[in-house]
């Protein structure tokens, strides 16, 4: 009798433990990105004097606009199970394109439109190669990284095309009311991305293809078309990012955006999107972007050298991916 | 009686607060075959995953030969000789058959490289001992689902399992392969292996099992020796807790005009001069052994298999079906035999999976109308009694049979004119089967033409208006009405003649 009692207590304690473990895990699971972001925010507020000021925070957001626009496009691509390593070069190409067009006297709206179309066509090309020739996205976009970068250098002969037009500069530096124009553009892109992904057939197909391509095909989904569409859409969005960047720099430089694809990929992964496809959200990506941007800003405020910044960012990304994989494993065996 | 090899005591398991198992106990003796039965979602697979350490239990104890096992993780359970052939098969498609058999334990030579010769030879020997006809060097992606099942069994045997769990091993096997598998089970038992056997096919349980444990809604109902179970009906009654009236709810409806005609359909090495037609309101059964070309007919109709010659006519008009999207546009629907590989979108919800081919219907202008979408998914969740906490539950966390029901709903909502069902009741329990057949019958009543491929003769006999029996890629014969009997089907399938 006594023995029985003790075992039942043992069991209930055991249960309680598991209950707590599970609850903690659920919080961690649902909100690890949010928690990370909040911690980072608090730490930066404490260890730097300038971080927590309206000016600085607006600055952080404005600087994150380009990254954020890129990351929205990257989210789509990664959810299909693909990747775009050429995003940085696409930024350079669209930057020099829009600057070149404006320098040649093309009216600004038209120059912007043409640049976005060029971006879309670049994406269309990559998407077509990827979906019809069955070459992994990794390879195709890696090749495009150097091809596009080359094109940007050849076109500019290596020197940035300076745009002195004041109107054009407004995109990256101006304000609409109290809000920086770049932030407005970023918000619009994010909203469009979210609506497409969560409320349209196209979005649903993007997830499905990233999870089970064969099932998608058998349900009548034109897998090739959707994949191509994702890269074309991505290309157009990357062009917008490139335009915003060129405007902020008042020039189109073949060096602009170099390496930024890695930040974009990192932001998407930090935001909980599955690198193998099938899962992810724009809201997560926004948080990922915030983490990277705050990290960049904070490290600058702390006068950390750029090489050290790279190392720290690398560690953060590794940590995030590691946590994600723990979550996945945990989920599989709860 | 000899002392038990495995004892599970008072096992409870909950998934985020919801109990899947409540106080379940199970005792397995060495050299016996122990059946585990229960409806879809009763907790059978979950209990087995706790035994293999794939899931951690919430509470309860596990004993191995009378000793308590504190930490049952996959490594530990493997060490104890526990091996599980899961319901959803784990075969790496891009590896060869032999590699799959020796997955994780490939024989190596002195240099540490894989010894291919030895591996292929060993695989061949295992196959021979199991009377399995499989080429070890073949790529796994090219073999049928039944053969994949055989690969898994060979893997278990190569690892010298002491306790073998088989979770619905025959759900994709035809009569003949089932026979082979069952004799294999008996053979293993005689060698002293303990087998835990999960199946929804009751006759098998009576053939090979010594003891049976019944689960219902995650609760332990009882364990008893098979000798004390009178017949299938008593067992089913214990499972579902009510009397089953009928298994096949076939309503005879007037059969209309031919809607589909297949003429001289051929594909080298697979299909040879196939001719048949399908009428509105008709249920056409396709029987035959696994590999006899049944699935290939369906695939050719759905644009997944390129035919060499032949014609397909719908409403007497010749049609070109280049891919599934063409087929769907022409009014075809297809429930494939392998839900994990070609049906389920595992990371998505039950709702997403049900609406996948129907999203066009829910879209007005640009956006998906989620209210309508949800309503329809809810409807079918009720209609087919899909056991899920809500339609927003991730489908990978549903029990196998319930996943199957979701896939079937997907195509019912699509309102096809011609519905092809390849093993529609794979892994579905007896009660739910009756439910699904009732729905299929209703579709026929509405004038849908139905092609039903099945390895379970009872299903073909019970449901079809007409039956085609396939043998080695050709139609061995066609049976109508009273001629549709198990005997006749088997005779045709094995190449014998039938007497009228
Ligand atoms: N990972 C999981 N997360 C949440 N719920 C789960 C998970 N795995 C199983 N379940 C739930 O546990 C219950 C039992 O499922 P289980 O797979 O054990 O059923 P089963 O008896 O094997 O059924 P079937 O005959 O259909 O295979 C189901 O209601 C299922 O939804
Ligand atoms: Mg199961």
Which short descriptors sum up this protein?
heterodimer, A: 334 residues, mainly alpha, two-stranded antiparallel ribbon, two-stranded antiparallel sheet, 79% helix, globular, disordered N terminus, B: 500 residues, alpha/beta, Rossmann fold, 2 domains, six-stranded mixed β-sheet, 22 strands, 33% helix, binds adenosine-5'-triphosphate, binds magnesium ion
Can you characterise this structure?
- The complex is a heterodimer of chains A (334) and B (500).
- Chain A is mainly alpha-helical.
- Helices cover 79% and strands 2% of the residues of chain A.
- Chain A contains 13 helices and four strands.
- Chain A has a two-stranded antiparallel ribbon with strand order 1-4. Chain A has a two-stranded antiparallel ribbon with strand order 2-3.
- In chain A, helix 2 runs parallel beside helix 7, helix 2 packs across helix 11 and helix 11 crosses helix 12.
- The two termini of chain A are 33 Å apart.
- By secondary structure, chain B is an alpha/beta fold.
- Chain B folds into two domains: 236 residues, P-loop containing nucleotide triphosphate hydrolases (Rossmann fold, 3-Layer(aba) Sandwich), CATH 3.40.50.300; 248 residues, Rossmann fold (3-Layer(aba) Sandwich).
- Chain B has 18 helices and 22 strands.
- In chain B, the strands form five sheets. A six-stranded mixed β-sheet of chain B has the order 6-7-8-3-9-10, sandwiched between helices. A six-stranded mixed β-sheet of chain B has the order 16-19-20-13-21-22, sandwiched between helices. In chain B, strands 2-1-4-5 form a four-stranded antiparallel β-sheet, covered by helices on one side.
- In chain B, strand 9 and strand 10 form a beta hairpin.
- In chain B, helix 14 packs across helix 15.
- Chain B is globular.
- Classes of the chains: A mainly alpha (334), B alpha/beta (500).
- At the A-B interface, helix 1, helix 8 and helix 9 of A face helix 10 and strand 18 of B.
């Amino acid at each position: 009798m006594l023995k029985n009692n003790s075992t039942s207590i043992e069991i209930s304690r055991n249960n309680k433990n598991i209950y707590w473990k599970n609850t903690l895990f659920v919080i961690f699971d649902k909100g690890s990105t949010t928690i990370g972001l909040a911690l980072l925010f608090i730490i930066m507020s404490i260890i730097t004097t300038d971080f927590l000021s309206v000016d600085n925070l607006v600055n952080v957001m404005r600087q994150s606009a380009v990254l954020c626009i890129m990351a929205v496009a990257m989210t789509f691509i990664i959810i299909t199970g693909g990747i775009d390593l050429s995003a940085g070069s696409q930024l350079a190409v669209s930057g020099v394109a829009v600057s070149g067009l404006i320098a040649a006297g093309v009216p600004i709206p038209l120059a912007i439109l043409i640049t976005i179309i060029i971006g879309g066509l670049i994406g269309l090309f990559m998407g077509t190669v990827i979906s019809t020739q069955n070459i992994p996205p990794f390879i195709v976009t890696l090749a495009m990284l150097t091809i596009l970068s080359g094109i940007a250098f050849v076109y500019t002969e290596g020197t940035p095309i300076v745009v002195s037009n004041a109107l054009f500069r407004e995109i990256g530096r101006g304000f609409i009311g109290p809000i920086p124009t770049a932030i407005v553009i970023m918000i619009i892109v994010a909203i469009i991305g979210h609506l497409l992904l969560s409320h349209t057939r196209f979005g649903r197909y993007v997830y499905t293809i990233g999870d089970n391509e064969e099932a998608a095909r058998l349900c009548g989904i034109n897998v090739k078309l959707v994949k191509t569409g994702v890269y074309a859409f991505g290309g157009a969005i990357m062009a917008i990012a490139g335009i915003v960047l060129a405007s902020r720099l008042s020039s189109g430089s073949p060096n602009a955006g170099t390496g930024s694809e890695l930040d974009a990929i990192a932001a998407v992964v930090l935001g909980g999107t599955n690198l193998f496809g099938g899962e992810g959200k724009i809201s997560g990506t926004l948080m990922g972007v915030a983490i990277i941007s705050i990290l960049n800003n904070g490290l600058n405020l702390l006068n950390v050298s750029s090489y050290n910044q790279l190392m720290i960012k690398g560690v953060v990304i590794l940590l995030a991916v590691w946590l994600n994989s723990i979550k996945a494993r945990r989920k599989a065996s709860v | 009686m000899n002392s038990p090899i495995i004892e599970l005591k008072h096992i409870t398991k909950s998934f985020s607060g919801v109990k899947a198992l409540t106080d379940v106990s199970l005792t397995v003796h060495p050299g016996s075959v122990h059946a585990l039965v229960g409806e879809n979602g009763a907790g059978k697979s979950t209990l087995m995953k706790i035994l293999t350490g794939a899931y951690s239990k919430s509470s309860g104890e596990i004993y191995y030969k009378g000793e308590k096992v504190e930490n049952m993780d996959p490594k530990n359970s493997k060490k104890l000789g526990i091996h599980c052939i899961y319901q959803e098969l784990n075969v790496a498609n891009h590896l060869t058959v032999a590699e799959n058999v020796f997955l994780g334990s490939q024989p190596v030579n002195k240099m540490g490289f894989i010894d291919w010769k030895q591996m292929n030879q060993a695989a061949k020997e295992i196959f021979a001992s199991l009377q399995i006809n499989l080429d070890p060097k073949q790529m796994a992606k090219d073999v049928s689902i039944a053969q994949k099942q055989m690969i898994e069994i060979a893997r278990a045997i190569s690892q010298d399992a002491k306790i073998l769990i088989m979770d619905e091993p025959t759900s994709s096997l035809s009569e003949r392969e089932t026979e082979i598998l069952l004799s294999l089970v008996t053979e293993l038992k005689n060698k002293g292996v303990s087998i835990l056997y999960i199946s929804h096919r009751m006759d098998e349980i009576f053939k090979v099992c010594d003891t049976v444990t019944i689960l219902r809604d995650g609760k332990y109902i009882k364990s008893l020796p098979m000798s004390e179970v009178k017949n299938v009906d008593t067992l089913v009654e214990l499972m579902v807790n009510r009397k089953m009236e009928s298994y096949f709810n076939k309503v005879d409806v007037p059969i209309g005009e031919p809607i589909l005609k297949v003429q001289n359909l051929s594909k080298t090495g697979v299909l040879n001069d196939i001719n048949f037609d399908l009428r509105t309101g008709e249920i056409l059964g396709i029987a035959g052994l696994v590999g006899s070309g049944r699935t290939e007919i369906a695939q050719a109709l759905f644009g997944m298999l390129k035919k060499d010659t032949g014609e397909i006519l719908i409403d007497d008009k010749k049609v070109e079906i280049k891919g599934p999207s063409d087929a769907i546009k022409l009014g075809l629907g297809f429930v494939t035999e392998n839900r994990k590989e070609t049906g389920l979108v595992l990371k998505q919800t039950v709702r997403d999976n049900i609406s996948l081919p129907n999203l066009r219907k829910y879209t007005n202008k640009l956006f998906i109308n989620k209210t309508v979408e949800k309503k329809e998914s809810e409807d079918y969740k009720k209609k087919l009694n899909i056991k899920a906490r809500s339609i927003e539950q991730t489908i990978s966390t549903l029990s196998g049979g319930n996943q199957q029901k979701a896939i079937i709903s997907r195509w019912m909502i699509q309102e096809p004119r011609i519905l092809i069902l390849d093993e529609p009741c794979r892994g579905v329990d007896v009660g739910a089967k009756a439910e699904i057949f009732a729905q299929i019958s209703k579709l026929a009543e509405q004038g849908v033409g139905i092609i039903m491929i099945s390895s379970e003769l009872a299903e073909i006999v019970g449901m079809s208006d007409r039956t085609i029996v396939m043998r080695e890629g050709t139609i061995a014969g066609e049976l109508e009405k009273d001629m549709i009997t198990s005997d006749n089907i088997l005779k045709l399938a094995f190449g014998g003649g039938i007497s009228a």
